[in-house]
Amino acid sequence: MLSKSIQMKFLNNKIALSLFVLLFSTGIAVAQEIIKENTVDTIKKVNTIKKQKIDGIIAKVGDYLILDSDIDKSYLEISSQGGSIKDITRCQILGKIMEDKLYAHQAVQDSLKVTDSEVKSMMEERLAYMVEQIGSMDKVVKYYKKNSEEDFRTYFFDVLKEQKLTSEMQKKIVEAVEITPEEVRNFFKKIPTADLPVFGAEMEVAQIVVTPKVSDVEKQKVIDKLNEFKKEVQAGESSFATKAVLYSQDPGSRATGGYYKMNRKTQFVKEFKEVAFSLQEGEISAPFETDFGYHIIYVEKIKGQDIELRHILLIPSVNSEDLKEAKEKIALIRKRIVDKEITFDKAAKTMSDEKETRTNGGALINPKTQDTRFELTKMDPTLYSQVSNLKDNEISLPLMDEDQSGKKKFKIITVTNRIDSHTADYAKDYIKIKDLALKEKQIKAIGKWFDDKIKDSYIKINGEYRDCTFTNNWLKK
User: Fold this and answer.
1) Residue 278 pLDDT greater than 90, yes or no
2) What is the chain's alpha carbon radius of gyration, rounded to the nearest angstrom?
3) How large is the average pLDDT for residues 421-437?
4) Whole-number mean pLDDT of the chain?
5) Dihedral over Cα of 99, 100, 106, 112: its sign
6) 47-56, 251-260, 376-385, 428-437: lowest mean pLDDT where?
7) Rounded CA gap, 350 and 347, in Å?
């Protein structure tokens, strides 16, 4: 029953969600320390009502110890991120922390691979974000009450490694969970009519994109620049990572020196993967082109099917004449559609420069759901502002978009379908219902996993926390 099974589990997810955002976003991470057995377990602190309180070990999961202050840290982190702690109890926080510890503990037991280079890459990316938000590395160190940057980096490395272990264990549990159409149908039939979910208003959107053409002169400029970088790195005059930090126009990897880890299943464009897998360890590619611009790749390590690499992306400049020509082209396409010389669908298939949408008549795919519907309340604010005032079958005026790397393009947009807020319908909302059914099955798989692992793992809870009522059977009653 949807309202019972999902709501009960997701009651704790009110806490889980708050902590998950903190743990896995690029913002400030929850600080849970791994403490050795011989660590003195009584440190003094002042609690929120200014009374002295002994901070001791309140629980142990496998090799991980949990301090009373870890709960206070979690409260502070949730509050600092704007979350509400009004209805969250210390027992609920402890339960969530213990879940994460058990995930990490079992990941180690199962020998799930989390390399130091992966963790260092995560750390550099998050540190760059934290410094940007707080103002300086000194302020970050002070925020975490560490004595030095080195002390903080050592501490933060352990925090992130535990988070990564937790994440990998979670993925391992749910990745094998699949659901059949019959299971989806049975799931939907079991929901009482009064409890059927209500889905918000949605729309389907299509677009036609014209990308300004880049001159051969500008293309050669970036090719020459990339060859220059390659030559300097090979001569030992600079490191590849330094060049990437200073010059790469890839916002996703610039802060980490262009670092990526990939295998043949990783979602990279075909041209990039072909070059990456053609290189030997320590080799730097010649400049090559993708839809994103021009790249060079340096392969740092090859481990079985995995490659650890760095790359630099440069995007050729577009001059004002190229921009003007692109704008005029998109305006002409719009006029032809408005004058009914050609349909939007056919114009997208024959004239759009965007490969991802061209074959579907320009239809946009929702990256969160992988279907064509966008719920208005969850739509990207920029996209919503572009389509919210459009009437049925109206074509927007030419719009200029600029991505994070500075690449410009012109587009026209139309709303192809509107779906009003409605009670779930099996035929119309199959994808959403399937997602709900899959989530329930995943929850059950996770619940069974916890039942099994708690029985087989060393779990100890001390003091007043033994009186808590937990979702999981931590007390092994």
Assistant:
1) yes
2) 26
3) 92
4) 85
5) positive
6) 47-56
7) 5
Please tell me which residue, 401 or 54, carries the higher pLDDT value.
Answer: 401
- 42 pLDDT above the threshold of 50: no
d(CA 380, CA 359): 23
Count CA atoms closer than 13 A to 87's CA, side-chain side. Answer: 6
Give the whole-angstrom CA distance, residue 261 versus residue 300: 10
d(CA 30, CA 148) in angstroms, rounded, equals 19
Six-digit token pair at 360? 């579907």
Report phi then psi at 471, rounded to 5.
-65, -45
Pick the residue with more confidence: 140 or 399?
A: 399
Report the C-alpha gap between 470 and 91 in whole angstroms. Answer: 7
Please, what is the Cα angle at 323 between 319 and 329, to 5 degrees?
145
Q: Are the C-beta atoms of 316 and 218 separated by less than 8 Å?
A: yes
pTM: 0.59
Q: Show the tokens assigned to 88.
A: 């969250």
pLDDT greater than 80 at residue 25: no
Give the pLDDT confidence of 198-229 residue by residue, as tens digits.
999 999 999 999 999 988 999 999 999 999 99
For residue 344, count CB atoms less than 10 angstroms from its CB and return exposed for 0-12, middle for 13-18, buried for 19 or more: buried
d(CA 313, CA 331): 31
- Reported residue count of the chain is 477
**Which residue type, as a one-letter code, is found at position 467?**
D
Quick one: how far is CA 96 from the chain centroid? 21
Ramachandran sector of residue 111 (left: φ over 0; alpha: ψ -120 to 50; beta: rest): left
Percentage, residues of the chain above pLDDT 70: 88
- Highest mean pLDDT among 30-39, 71-80, 145-154, 176-185 belongs to 176-185
Q: At what angle do helices 90-109 and 430-456 cross, to 10 degrees?
A: 80
DSSP code per residue over 251-268: TTTGGGTTEEEE-TTS--
> Checking phi first, is residue 169 left (phi over 0); if not, alpha (psi -120 to 50) or beta?
alpha
In angstroms, the CA 378 to CA 386 distance is: 15
Tens digit of pLDDT for each residue in 330-365?
999 999 999 999 999 999 999 999 988 999 999 999
Q: What string of DSSP letters covers 146-192?
A: -SSHHHHHHHHHHHHHHHHHHHHHHHHHHHT----HHHHHHHHHTS-
Alpha-carbon distance 124 to 142, whole Å?
Answer: 18
- Tell me if 293 sits within 8 A of 405, measured CB to CB: yes
